[in-house]
Amino acid sequence: MSNEPVQWYSSKVDWWLAALLCVPPVASVAVTVGFATHGNAGELPWGIGSIALVATIYFGLVFPMRYGIDDTHLVVRSGMIWQHIRLANIIEVHPTHNPLSSPALSLDRLYVKYGESWTKAVMISPANRDRFLDELASKTGLKREGDRLVSLKQMV
Asked: 73-116 pLDDT, tens per residue?
């Protein structure tokens, strides 16, 4: 990773996914409060444990969800997981609505291919897609065609 400052882009968040993500923490807090207010002191550790488990999962795998670009890398951050993709390796970028698991909080995604293998790709959902694509195009040398970035070699 270079020492250049990283320009960060937050993930777009679909309203239905935000609502769905609210269910586990609200449910675990509600159960814990229920245990506490109804005199079930023996059950209280289970409620507190469920809150801790949900918080660990969310802050370990989900939050913050953002994408950064510096002079040499695309950085994908999902919770405590960091993925560094060399800009020079990016072959193409195109829109997708693929629902497979990925570091994205929206189905309005960009498929970033950075190698020939099907495992050399990531799906992301930057909230400011236009600015993200403009910056990525300028740093990778790929040509922007709408919401796509393509190699000049592929165009020939």
From this structure: 999 999 999 999 999 999 999 999 999 999 999 999 999 999 99
Instruction: Report d(CA 40, CA 57) in Å as an integer.
Output: 26
Q: pLDDT tens digits for 22-44?
A: 999 999 999 999 988 987 788 89
As beta bridge partners, residue 84 has 75
Bridge partners of 81, per DSSP, are 78
For residues 67 and 77, give the distance between their C-alpha atoms in angstroms, rounded to a whole number.
6
The domains found in the chain, sorted by start residue, are: 7-11+65-155 (2.30.29), 15-61 (no CATH)
State the burial class of residue 22 (Cβ atoms within 10 Å of its Cβ: 0-12, 13-18, 19+): exposed
CA distances from 25 to 14, 16, 107, 108 (A): 18, 16, 22, 25
Confirm if 87 and 7 have CB atoms less than 8 A apart: no
152 pLDDT band (50/70/90 cuts)? Answer: confident
